[in-house]
């Protein structure tokens, strides 16, 4: 009896300590991840520098107005493209539907700034289209009107073309999960197919549409490359200019805080829509009967889908390929390889860091399901909503502060100046990537873990394995697929990320994205094609992953997946 | 021609697979029919063909004398004036109860629509929930909304696809009775699809029993139980066993105990027949000289259902009050009391 009591109490003690350390680890992770955003928010409470008044007088109005117009434009653009693509592929049958089902995802591989460079090259005065028009009609300069791509309208078009897949993915899942019976109920109550679409199918997909559009808008707000290249003043370009051009870190942070406010509104909208999706979820009882499109209707559907894919992916990809092959002979191969190596190394480090933290958070949440743990995981995955520019500024401030403290300390005691040890290093950059992309790996690992039934954990534990052994022997082997996916997704996202890298990269350190940006800014579009094409090709990897897995996990992109997962809870 | 609904030689096929064929049945105005059968027998397919969601490959479906389905000529579902209650109720999740019920009333003006919705809600006792959303309602309430929604446009016929299968079993029977009363009171012609005979008995005036896409028997519940047309029907409906009996020299049935002389009918001497024995055909009787060994027993609350062995190795069911508690291996005194003698020819295959 006596012995028994002792054993029990040590076990309890042991368990208590184990859970404490997991919890501490999770909270610490969440706290560190939250630092950049907290610093940005806190900057609102600081003194406003004279620069701020200057901004207020001159450009702030433009930033707000352009950002709003951009959101309005990209919102409508992605809505129309995404919903019609989803409706065609989920609810109708027409020749080529199966191919378009995945082909419509291809534009996801195309970063907005790259499609912007490509279209600019194609549509410029000296580009192939205008040249062809001039020679065909024998026009000269100024003889004709041609829309200017480097404008707000152009930016809206470019962003809509590559961001509509967010809407498409979510709405397609929503459509295909709609109970056929509900649509049939509408038919039997006297509404024809079109009325059923507008009265039942679309309203039921409303939460998915809202969630998809808010995700697209978050990306649009985060975009720096496109608006910068097109000379459209928005918050992101403003933040960059305030920091880079004026050297005003605090004013940049305050601008970033305003951008965060926009993002926050979208975030709330997205969360709200996601909650509502649960109510709108019907169990699928029967395979949906697709509307058979025939004759000219089928032709229109085919042409529409083809146009979207061509404009969003095929055409720019072909243009990039043709430029790249033109310049291949004169390319500095070893220089390019250095670029590739440094980009890949950076992306590999960042994705590994994300994965480790994601495993800690996801596993901790599973081990000790509690409100505190859930919140920690939640806070750690806020980054997906925060634009890279904002995170970069938020990382720069604490790192610079630490550098100054170290420098002062060293000078005081050893009389040596250390200069900037941290802020100009890869450490700052990797930290910023982790903040921004942790959610990507966390959600992938999370949903992988969710597929492992708790009874498996319990049986392993009852067979005498501790939490770490369960992780090692049961979960990690079973999670291999999710782990690989998490690594790949962050890897690709890091390769594509432009503004964070641009602001935080160490001196003379270049990545594919930054190089493409620099060359394009110098109007050397054809030279920018090779790094751009490399990014696009690697960007295709996650897209193929999405198309390979069945429609149930169609929303494998974690940002979309997060929605999908909640939706099934 | 007078019937509300008439199916004449209807077949439904998907490619090579024929889900239903040679279905002929009709339903009078105000009658409640039922398509009953094991899963996969084609009953739901048939219902969906009536609703216009499946195309017929042969035969015609007529509603009030007007052909609504013929091979190659289908009236779209929305023009059929057919109301449907779906298995999962299929309520519109984005509309509240009131707007769900009013959904099919597009032809009415706002005022009469509101009035009709009110009327339907009071019919199903859900006035208090007019503003609620489907996810806020219980299963039984959702079902009533689905019923009200389907009935609101005054359909020529109401189709119910397994309407009780998503509900708790205690609720089921009660709701089935309520639904029947409601339909009868309002003179609604309806067809119910179910695999549950108790539901069919509780709701329907006329049951169409189906098997492998074909109609096996169309009859009243009473006749289906007491006068099954085949061994399949006898086995599917109610409990009981079918035993092989021989006809003795005097033309009486004999199961080896010589106790089946009921003086009803006489059969050809020497013939071998299959006899349906329901649990209530074998009565518990302490004074009976016949006692049979108990092979198995199962407790049914108010009753025990015993399985009793016959000398020739076959067994018959026997229902007793549950205070008659014997163990397996003991014997039970019984007497045979066959009010309805149901026999089938011995060649089993010839029947089905």
TrEMBL record, chain B:
Checking SMART domains in the record gives: AAA
Give one GO molecular function term.
ATP hydrolysis activity
Q: What's an example GO BP annotation here?
A: quaternary ammonium group transport
Stretches assigned to the ABC transporter domain: 5-237
InterPro entries, sorted: AAA+_ATPase, ABC_SmlMolc_Importer, ABC_transporter-like_ATP-bd, ABC_transporter-like_CS, ABC_transpr_FbpC, Mo/tungstate-bd_C_term_dom, P-loop_NTPase, Transp-assoc_OB_typ2
The record's section on CDD domains has: ABC_Carb_Solutes_like
Gene3D superfamilies (alphabetical): 2.40.50.100, P-loop containing nucleotide triphosphate hydrolases (3.40.50.300)
Note one Pfam family from the annotation: TOBE_2
Q: What's in the keyword line of the UniProt record?
A: ATP-binding, Cell membrane, Ion transport, Iron, Iron transport, Membrane, Nucleotide-binding, Transport
Q: Which residues form the signal peptide?
A: none
Q: Could you name the Gene Ontology cellular component terms for this entry?
A: ATP-binding cassette (ABC) transporter complex
PROSITE patterns in UniProt:
ABC_TRANSPORTER_1 (PS00211), ABC_TRANSPORTER_2 (PS50893)
Which protein, by its recorded name, is this? ABC transporter ATP-binding protein
Protein's organism? Sediminihaliea albiluteola
């Amino acid at each position: 009896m006596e012995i028994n009591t002792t054993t029990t109490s040590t076990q309890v003690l042991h368990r208590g300590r184990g859970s404490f350390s997991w919890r501490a680890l999770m909270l610490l992770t969440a706290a560190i991840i939250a630092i950049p955003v907290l610093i940005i928010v806190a900057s609102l409470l600081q003194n406003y520098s004279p620069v701020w008044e200057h901004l207020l007088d001159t450009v702030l109005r433009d930033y707000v107005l352009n950002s709003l117009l951009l959101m309005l434009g990209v919102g409508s653009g992605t809505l129309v493209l995404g919903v019609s693509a989803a409706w065609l592929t989920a609810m109708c049958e027409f020749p080529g539907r199966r191919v378009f089902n995945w082909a419509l995802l291809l534009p996801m591989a195309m970063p907005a700034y790259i499609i912007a460079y490509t279209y600019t090259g194609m549509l410029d005065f000296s580009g192939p289209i205008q040249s062809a028009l001039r020679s065909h009609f024998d026009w000269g300069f100024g003889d004709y009107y041609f829309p200017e791509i480097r404008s707000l309208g152009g930016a809206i078009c470019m962003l809509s073309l590559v961001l509509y897949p967010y809407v498409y993915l979510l709405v397609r899942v929503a459509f295909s999960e709609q109970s056929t019976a509900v649509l049939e109920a509408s038919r039997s109550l006297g509404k024809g197919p079109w009325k059923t679409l507008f009265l039942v199918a679309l309203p039921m997909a409303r939460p998915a549409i809202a969630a998809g559009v808010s995700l697209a808008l978050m990306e649009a707000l985060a975009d720096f490359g496109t608006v910068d290249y097109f000379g459209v003043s928005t918050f992101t370009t403003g933040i960059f200019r305030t920091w880079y051009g004026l050297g005003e870190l605090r004013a940049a942070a305050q601008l970033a805080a305003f951008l965060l406010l926009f993002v926050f509104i979208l975030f709330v909208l997205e969360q709200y829509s996601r909650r509502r999706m649960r109510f709108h979820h019907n169990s699928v009882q029967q395979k949906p009967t697709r509307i058979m499109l025939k004759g000219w209707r089928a032709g229109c559907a085919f042409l529409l889908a083809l146009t979207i894919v061509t404009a969003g992916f095929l055409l720019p990809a072909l243009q990039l390929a043709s430029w790249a092959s033109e310049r291949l002979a004169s390319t500095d191969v070893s220089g390019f390889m250095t670029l590739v190596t440094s980009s890949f190394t950076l992306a590999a480090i960042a994705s590994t860091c994300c994965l480790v933290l994601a495993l800690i958070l996801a596993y901790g949440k599973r081990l000790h399901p509690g409100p505190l743990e859930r919140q920690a995981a939640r806070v750690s995955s806020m980054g997906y909503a925060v634009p890279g520019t904002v995170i970069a500024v938020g990382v720069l401030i604490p790192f610079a502060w630490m550098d100054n403290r170290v420098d002062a300390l060293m000078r005081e005691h050893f009389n040596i100046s250390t200069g900037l040890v941290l802020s100009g290093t890869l450490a700052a950059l990797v930290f910023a990537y982790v903040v921004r992309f942790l959610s990507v790996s966390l959600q992938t690992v999370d949903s992988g873990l969710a597929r492992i039934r708790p009874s498996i954990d319990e049986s392993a534990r009852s067979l005498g394995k501790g939490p770490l052994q369960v992780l090692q022997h049961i979960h990690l082997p079973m999670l291999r697929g999710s782990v690989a996916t998490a690594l790949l997704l962050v890897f690709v996202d890091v390769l594509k990320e432009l503004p964070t890298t641009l602001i935080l990269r160490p001196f003379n350190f270049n990545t594919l994205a930054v190089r493409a940006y620099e060359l394009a800014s110098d109007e050397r579009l054809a030279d920018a094609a090779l790094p751009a094409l490399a990014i696009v090709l690697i960007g295709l990897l996650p897209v193929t992953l999405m198309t390979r897995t069945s429609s149930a996990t169609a929303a494998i992109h974690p940002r979309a997946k997060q929605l999908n997962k909640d939706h099934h809870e | 021609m007078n019937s509300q609904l008439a199916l004449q030689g209807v077949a439904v096929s998907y490619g090579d697979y024929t889900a239903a064929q040679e279905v002929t049945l009709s339903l009078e105005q105000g009658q409640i029919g039922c398509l009953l059968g094991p899963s996969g027998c084609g009953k739901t397919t048939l219902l969906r063909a009536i609703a216009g969601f499946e195309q017929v490959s042969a035969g015609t479906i007529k509603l009030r004398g007007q052909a609504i389905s013929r091979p190659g000529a289908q009236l779209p579902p929305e023009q059929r004036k057919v109301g449907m209650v779906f298995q999962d109720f299929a309520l519109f999740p984005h509309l509240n109860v009131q707007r769900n019920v009013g959904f099919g009333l597009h032809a009415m003006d706002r005022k009469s629509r509101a009035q009709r919705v009110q009327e339907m809600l009071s019919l199903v006792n859900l006035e208090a929930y007019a503003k609620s959303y489907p996810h806020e309602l219980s299963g039984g309430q959702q079902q009533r909304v689905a019923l009200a929604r389907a009935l609101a446009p005054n359909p020529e016929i109401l189709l119910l696809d397994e309407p009780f299968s998503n509900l708790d079993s205690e609720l089921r029977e009660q709701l089935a009775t309520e639904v029947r009363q409601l339909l009868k009171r309002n003179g609604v012609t309806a067809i119910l699809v179910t695999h549950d005979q108790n539901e069919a008995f509780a709701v329907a005036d006329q049951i169409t029993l189906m098997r492998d896409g074909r109609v096996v028997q169309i009859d009243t519940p009473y006749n289906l139980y007491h006068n099954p047309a085949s061994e399949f029907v006898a086995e599917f409906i109610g409990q009981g066993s079918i035993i092989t009996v021989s006809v003795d020299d005097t033309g009486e049935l004999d199961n080896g105990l010589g106790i089946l002389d009921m003086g009803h009918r006489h059969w050809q001497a020497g013939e071998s027949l299959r006899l349906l024995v329901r649990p209530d055909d074998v009565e518990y009787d302490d004074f009976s000289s016949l006692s049979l060994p108990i092979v198995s027993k199962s407790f049914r609350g108010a009753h025990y259902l015993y399985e009793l062995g016959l000398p020739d190795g076959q067994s018959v069911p026997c229902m007793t009050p549950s205070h008659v508690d014997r163990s397996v291996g003991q014997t039970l005194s019984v007497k045979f009391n066959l009010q309805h003698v149901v026999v089938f020819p011995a060649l089993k295959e010839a029947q089905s």
